[in-house]
Design brief:
Two copies of one chain form a homodimer.
Chain A lengths: L4 E5 L3 H10 L5 E6 L11 E4 L5 H8 L4 E4 L6 H8 L8 H7 L2 H10 L7 E4 L2 H11 L3 E5 L9 E4 L5 H8 L4 E5 L5 E9 L5 E3 L3 E6 L2 E7 L6 H17 L4 E10 L8 E8 L9 H4 L4 H10 L11 E8 L5 H5 L4 E5 L9 E9 L2 H13 L11
Parallel strand pairs in A: 1-2, 1-4, 2-3
Antiparallel strand pairs in A: 5-8, 6-7, 6-8, 9-10, 9-11, 9-13, 11-12, 12-15, 13-14, 15-17, 16-17
Helix pairs in contact in A: 1-10, 3-4
């Protein structure tokens, strides 16, 4: 296992946590990230360059055992160029699907995975046609480069249409029907090179201003039916893409259908380790980071079971008093070594407990120390 | 917490695991180690120089928040020189005590912590006197620089005396009575800057050829009386030294005394994180590495409770088939990125379970994959 260097496109907190999980496996890391102050800068080799810099990408790829990404907006061309020389997991096609909301929704539809109703919007006329087809309320979104709530706007009624078009028009868009849902869940699954699949228990996610604020795992009141349904969808995606590594799918849990069956609508997928899986570091037998690495280097997957109950809270914009947090029971701090900035994810806290009641008590204590920071778009 | 650089004297596996535990706390690391191929070389800044190189030590110390050690044979003078400029934890006096078996045993005796009978041996006459006093069998040991079974020889009967003297004579020695003991235990405790103390459950250790082979935590059949006794001894040492950080004490569990009370004899102490505490990474609420860092930077200590049962097996000399190991349930691999060499600790495996019976089953599976390597002195 020595002399095995893993290349990671993107050097943010996900890359940082991949490296921390991978060193114990005897792996080494090289990152490509345009930012000189990337969170990985002190703990691994970093090529500081644009993802479009062909020379830098070639230098980055030199001698790697395998390359992966921790950021889904890596140019697909860069991933494909690397793939000419070394294995790249997950497959670049997964990037392609995840980078375009329309391609993604059509991909889910092809696999018989339910989604909210959607229609492409390329001009003002097609926006009107899409509203005719889907009805209101609906959400107008850019097809590309939207994350953490950026690049989308709600159209509640006809009076909002002009404003929405003014805000987003002139680029490829998608209109999505607004589906009443009880909560957002996410499923994290990992597939090995041998096709073995492991799924983590579903997570319940709560967002604030479009940014993930909190995840609870396993999701409260999770039924075996819902878990199985989500796993079925995840497996379809993994197999359709001949996927290797960790995949996250965000799901809306809608009301049961007329037959009383559970309904999950796929919202989007991330072809990488995911913020809603950070709880797995302390809360699962094998973390998402370790399992992603096991998958891409061809090791057997680890057990994805939860060890108990866990909740993760993101530290966004500014840091709380970490001394107070660390005095709380079974509370674990993860800082990313990033400069504070409104809306920026600076770290997270995971709190664990043996049962859901105890977890709720501990989570309440953790949340008491969270700063009341202004949430605004960031990274 | 940012811009806080921790200096660590020694860049071996203990330093590596300290860094991996410290990055999530927002800490950064600088190591001093004479070896260019130290296990920390890829994951932190390293000054490659001798511990006696005053210029390099000064350069190493520049701008550090605090310094610590992961290797107890760091020259005390180096630690004291650093202490003129920055806080150094644990206190250099702890190094002084731990580096000399005679000083150490006298220190235990002063604190009313039982040990095997011992006597200093400086020449052949004092060896004879020591044998007269202590009786045989006994163990002749160098006072300094002995570890992993190096620098010691058993004197079973009078016929062995000449050989023992021939092997070790000419340097400061100590003769220790051979005490029949049921097993070796170790206690790991951590003390914060505020004087708070947390103790991990006692660990049962098994050595092979003088090298730690396996630890089980909590120690099987551990009674509250024995745990409390060990904690009492650990607290005495911590308080006598105004200690900050993790301390390990190796203990022999002897037969109960005539009144039926438990008896623990202190063998030696290590003023640092310890091999018998590696299980805490997965097996305790807070690992020994994180707790050492929390202590030396002035954060509150984390819970030292076990999460369940855990066993750690050292990978010595050569590596087993890690693919097979990683397929076993709740089995965790830690490689140190060291070149294989007989007797060298290359990594360890920790296996966890909810109860002792299940742990024994899983440990048996893990041990089936251990290489039958020749054990010989190493590092």
């Amino acid at each position: 296992m020595n002399d095995r260097v893993i290349g990671i496109l993107g050097g943010g907190q996900l890359g940082r946590m991949l490296a921390l999980a991978g060193y114990p496996l005897g792996l080494r890391f090289r990152f490509l990230d345009p930012a000189g102050d990337a969170p990985v800068r002190y703990l691994a080799e970093q090529v500081v360059a644009s993802y479009e810099d062909h020379l830098a990408v070639a230098q980055f790829g030199d001698g790697l055992m395998v390359a992966t990404y921790e950021f889904e907006n890596v140019p697909v061309a860069t991933a494909r160029a690397l793939e000419q020389r070394i294995p790249v997991y997950p497959p670049p096609q997964a990037l392609e699907v995840a980078q375009d909301r329309l391609v993604e929704k059509r991909f889910f539809a092809q696999l018989n995975i339910p989604t909210a109703p959607f229609a492409p919007v390329d001009d003002r006329a097609s926006l009107d046609a899409a509203i005719e087809q889907i009805g209101l309320p609906a959400i107008l979104k850019t097809r590309r480069l939207g994350y953490d709530g950026k690049g989308q706007t709600l159209i509640e009624n006809r009076a909002d249409i002009d404003d929405a078009w003014y805000a987003l028009g002139g680029q490829p868009l998608i209109l999505e029907g607004f589906v009443p849902f009880a909560r957002e869940l996410s499923v994290l699954a990992v597939r090995g090179q041998d096709g073995a699949v492991a799924c983590y228990p579903l997570v319940e996610n709560l967002h604030r201003n479009g940014i993930l604020y909190r995840s609870i795992a396993p999701a409260p009141r999770l039924t075996a039916e819902v878990q199985l349904l989500a796993e079925t969808y995840a497996r379809r995606v993994l197999e359709a893409l001949d996927y290797v590594g960790v995949l996250a799918i965000e799901l809306f849990e809608a009301d049961a259908d007329r037959a009383g069956s559970a309904r999950l609508l796929a919202n989007e997928m991330a072809p990488r380790v995911h913020n809603s899986g950070h709880w797995t570091i302390e809360g699962a037998v094998t973390s998402q980071f370790e399992n992603h690495l096991r998958a891409i280097v061809g090791l057997p997957l680890g057990d994805a079971s939860a060890r108990g109950c866990a909740a993760m809270v993101n530290l966004v914009g500014s840091l709380p008093d970490v001394t107070m947090l660390l005095a709380l029971p079974d509370t674990h701090l993860h800082l990313y070594d990033k400069a504070p900035r409104p809306g920026r994810k600076l770290g997270h806290v995971t709190v664990c407990a043996g049962d859901a009641t105890r977890l709720a008590e501990r989570l309440a204590m953790v949340e008491r120390y969270m700063p009341l920071s202004p949430f605004s778009p960031g990274d």
